Amino acid sequence: MGNADEKIIVVESGRCSWGKCIFCSFSKKPEVPEASFERLKKILDKALTEKVGVLKYLNSGSFLDENQIPEKFRDYLVERCVALGVNELVVECLPEHITEDVLEELAKKRKGLKITFALGLEVADDEVLRKIQKSFDLKTYEKTAHVLRKFGFGVRTYLMANLPHVKNPKKSLEQSVEYALKLSDSVAVINTFPYGFSPLFKMWVGGVWHPLDKKEFEGICKKYKNNAVVEFFFDDYIAYPRFVDFMRENIVGATSACLNHPYFNVWQEYLVRFMKRRIQRNMRFSSRAHTENHTQNL
Ligand code: SF4
Fold first, then answer.
1. pLDDT tens, position by position, 111-156
2. Which CATH number fits domain 6-241+289-297: 3.20.20.70, 3.10.20.90, 2.30.30.100, 3.90.1720.10?
């Protein structure tokens, strides 16, 4: 969750260059918003008007991929942060776009602004990384973290709890946190929840995989509850789950077959476990500067 001195700007911009992670919808959607300087500038100017301690600029893919974030906008964002006196800018990026040349250039422009790169490692296990179709392995993650440090950039690592293909979610999470802590300034543990167009959403509907509820999530994370550099996100990244499409095709009427249909059960579970909290959250966020409705677009 964000704090009072933190602003989160979530912007979809072009397609992620990888687009294959099985829990993610980005790049699998039929349409994605254009990655133009003008559009990104307009969104930023509206959202960022005063100093904040930490600006998390999340562009659903890679900040250093010019097909998603034009270099001109990258420079503009850094300039705006410097001009407003923002302390830290956090961006996301795949390792394949993090090169020494680009970091060297960026380092010249930051003028005292701390820039942290969030790396979506998800799990410290090469076999699982391959199965969930991440684009990189542990060796690449380690190399990237070292290069970022070499140029004075911060490292934040995303981990996902309860991924499919993980045999023991608690043990796997603990191993992943210990591993990530060695190379990161901060670690974010996210409860795995599939986006609507992702293969994992189909696995959930098909009964092959199941998300954790709050108690289960807190149970596997409890070892790090008081660790100041590990943050937890239970349902911050849930998205509109596309039940309508599934329901329309498979649930017709209140027959016993329909009421016991797996799609119907998943839909009910979504409402019971996540909707109440999501409504509360939306009410709270309506008074905050959220630039785009992230979840509606997933
Ligand atoms: S999780 Fe990130 S890297 Fe993977 S497909 Fe989605 S946006 Fe791309």
1. 999 999 999 999 999 999 999 999 999 999 999 999 999 999 999 9
2. 3.20.20.70
Nearest protein CA to atom 5 of ligand 1, as residue: 19
Residue 122: CB partners within 8 Å, gap ≥ 6? 21, 129, 132, 134, 158, 159, 160, 163, 176
Phi and psi, residue 189, nearest 5° = -100, 120
- Ligand 1 atom 4: the closest Cα is on which residue? 21
Residue of the nearest CA to atom 2 in ligand 1? 61
* CA angle 152–153–154, rounded 5-degree value: 125
Q: Mutual orientation of helices 71-84 and 37-47 as an angle, nearest 10°?
A: 20
Q: Is 129 in the pocket of ligand 1 (CB under 6 A)?
A: no
State how far the Cα of 236 lies from the Cα of 191, in Å rounded to an integer: 9
